[in-house]
Amino acid sequence: xxxxxxxxxxxxxxxxxxxxxxxxxxxxxxxxxxxxxxxxxxxxxxxxxxxxxxxxxxxxxxxxxxxxxxxxxxxxxxxxxxxxxxxxxxxxxxxxxxxxxxxxxxxxxxxxxxxxxxxxxxxxxxxxxxxxxxxxxxxxxxxxxxxxxxxxxxxxxxxxxxxxxxxxxxxxxxxxxxxxxxxxxxxxxxxxxxxxxxxxxxxxxxxxxxxxxxxxxxxxxxxxxxxxxxxxxxxxxxxxxxxxxxxxxxxxxxxx
Amino acid sequence: xxxxxxxxxxxxxxxxxxxxxxxxxxxxxxxxxxxxxxxxxxxxxxxxxxxxxxxxxxxxxxxxxxxxxxxxxxxxxxxxxxxxxxxxxxxxxxxxxxxxxxxxxxxxxxxxxxxxxxxxxxxxxxxxxxxxxxxxxxxxxxxxxxxxxxxxxxxxxxxxxxxxxxxxxxxxxxxxxxxxxxxxxxxxxxxxxxxxxxxxxxxxxxxxxxxxxxxxxxxxxxxxxxxxxxxxxxxxxxxxxxxxxxxxxxxxxxx
Lengths: 256, 255
Fold this sequence. Notes:
The structure holds two protein chains of two kinds. Chain A has helices spanning 2-33, 39-50, 54-79, 85-123, 126-132, 137-176, 180-190, 193-219, 224-255. Chain A is mainly α. By secondary structure, chain B is of the alpha/beta class. Chain B has a domain at 1-82 and 197-255: P-loop containing nucleotide triphosphate hydrolases (Rossmann fold, 3-Layer(aba) Sandwich), CATH 3.40.50.300. Chain B has a six-stranded mixed sheet with strand order 6-7-8-3-9-10, with helices on both faces. In chain B, strands 2-1-4-5 form a four-stranded antiparallel sheet, covered by helices on one side. In chain B, helix 4 (119-132) packs across helix 5, helix 5 runs parallel beside helix 6 (178-195) and helix 6 packs parallel to helix 7. Chains A and B meet through helix 5 of A and helix 2, strand 6 and helix 3 of B.
């Protein structure tokens, strides 16, 4: 009986969470479609959430590109296929690692920031104050963050792709003596524009996940400072899990 | 409970509200007289702030009704309630100013969102509002730079900037020294006179309450057990009210 009770509660909690998240997303998208977007706040959020993530995205993608190049160059040189290293790096970066690693890094940094900020606003009654002034927190707070991430995450992903390939190119030249021209020629042969666009489609999906999970967790915060901590942690964990799951589904649909 | 022959701006009728197992209000009724200052007293955790949130439509009762200008806000859409809220303002206990905005931007927020005033008109209205609460110089300050009393008054300025018909004050004097408490009490009286509005004030400061209240209601165990003019409540023979006003540990109120 106790197991059934717990199972029942967990099921109700799951559907309550999924329903709440879906409603908040639908409400926010509704405001976006009706162009009820606070432009100045959106630009400010784009700078805060996007531009300030540049360094961490650059470092992550640089070393990822370098390690792919290092690993693939070892094998490629051994078997006489050094000219394929550029293709291997570009293929992995543009289709998978660029969008996904950028998503994960931004989820850790930005998803946590959104959940913590909105959670703090809940516990200090700022969200209730907005509602008492007849302002919808979704339009006032969530939409600017969602639009900012929808703009910035694809740009960060392109940046990550370029940095990753550049890092790989440098290591391939230094470690396996693959010329820059040969590396870039291999890149051009292995990927085309559709691969980049499919990677960007993933970035759009990840942006929605990060913004909405962070915002929903923040707005659902209960219980003071400890509650803000729980919301922040859960927002990051759930965003990363959803990014991995949706990455697989999107790869299956787009490349499978 | 209602004083007869008075015009009402709002009314709570048989409202019941529970959070899980905890029943906050049970068949609670209260009339808010138009143009008057109504103070609500009661023990900590009795549900006084909940009554303000019912009047503002931030919480809805699980049973009963809340009327504002004779219209039941419980059966409105959120958009309709948002329109009603433009005539009601809630001043929060800890002011609840948005900490990313300056005081001026906070006060200007309802005007920017709900009116078509020009930036110059908004700035002038905000300055007037800040001036009314003695904070004319705080326009560009961030909330974190203000003292507790200044924060409360900045919250008042935001609450009155749209010239609401009903202002709800949630514990405006809690945590303030006696001088600032007097200043806050005077400010509430001045604002009522200036706006010609009604007010509901929740407070534990009896001196402040009897200095400003036209009517006083006492909330006890989820219901209003006494509601009358301030003078009659001060001299009430109700043992619960008398014990509360005397601050005595002996009496029918369980400690």
